Prior knowledge:
Blueprint: H1 3-27, H2 50-69, H3 83-116, E1 120-123, E2 126-130, H4 137-140, H5 154-189
Antiparallel strand pairs: 1-2
Helix pairs in contact: 1-2, 1-5, 2-3, 2-5, 3-5
Amino acid sequence: MCSGGFAKCLGITLIPLAIICILCNILLFFPGGEVADKSDNITEEVFYLGGILGSGVLMIFPALVFLGLKNNDCCGCCGNESCGKRFAMFSSILFAAAGAVGAGYSVIVSCVAINHGPKCITDQFNSNYTYPFENGNYLSNRTLWNECLEPSGIITWHLTLFCILLIAGLVQIGLCAFQVINGLIGTICGDCCGCCGDSN
């Protein structure tokens, strides 16, 4: 497969992953699927926008660049037929690196959030939201989940969405790493499909 064609496949994969991450981050603003009375009732890491900015917006730009590499015009660079395509592949390395940084940010935020645990009500006579867990102790001891009285199902909600963000971020980092390698090959060797649509 041509380096440009492979990059297009990566771009097609990154777009839905970015959309999923954005949606997960938005859903986290609704603890347990409910509208929060005030922002203090929402887990702090949600406001870091790891899914919206890191794995979302910052991933859209590299994905669009990857999608455009297949049809990039490679014949207008100082009369050198392969110069344009090589430059395009080199620029894709920079965008892939930026995407990996964004996804890495999302992964770090997700790990911290999972370790920190959700904010919830632990006292039926006190409606204040607190963090009842320490150092991810609730992950290995499910009986601790009973400490969260409200919102209903907040721990499952919190874990599910942040785990999706974590896994999606790791996949995005892997895909961006593939594009860095692919971009290096395309920069050094050129695109195997030739230039100006001539693939014969």
